[in-house]
UniProtKB/TrEMBL annotation:
GO molecular-function terms, A-Z: DNA binding
PROSITE patterns the record matches: HTH_CROC1
Protein name as it appears in the record: Helix-turn-helix transcriptional regulator
Matches recorded under SUPFAM superfamilies: lambda repressor-like DNA-binding domains
Domain of life, per lineage: Bacteria
Native source species: Exilibacterium tricleocarpae
InterPro entries attached to this UniProt entry: Cro/C1-type_HTH, Lambda_DNA-bd_dom_sf
């Protein structure tokens, strides 16, 4: 599924383009969130109450819905005690370091 960006001057909602490979990652994230919730024996209702989000939004997060804001994902991760895991994303940028090293090596010549 590819979600198309829709922008209107009337202020209607926009959606990000999400390619199938990236949707798989979001789906895995949602599944991981759901498993973490169940391991803690938390209900969707409890998560909803603690975050102020609707149960429908909690369900969408657990399904990896790309239309749900990152802030909502963070709120749920916060309740689960996992929000710090988000800070690990891109912390080990192996490709970026390699590209930087190549550039540094070419300057030495």
């Amino acid at each position: 599924m590819v979600t198309i960006v829709t922008i209107s001057k009337s202020g209607s909602k926009r959606s990000a383009v999400v390619f199938p490979k990236n949707q798989e990652v979001l789906s895995r994230l949602g599944e991981n969130i759901q498993l973490a919730r169940k391991r803690r024996k938390y209900t969707q209702t409890l998560i909803s109450e603690r975050t102020g989000l609707s149960r429908l939004t909690i369900r969408k997060i657990e399904n990896g819905d790309p239309k749900v804001s990152l802030g909502h994902y963070v709120a749920v991760l916060g309740v689960l005690g996992l929000v710090e895991d988000l800070a690990k994303v891109a912390s080990d940028d192996e490709l970026g370091r390699k590209l930087q090293d190549i550039k540094l090596m070419s300057k030495q010549k």
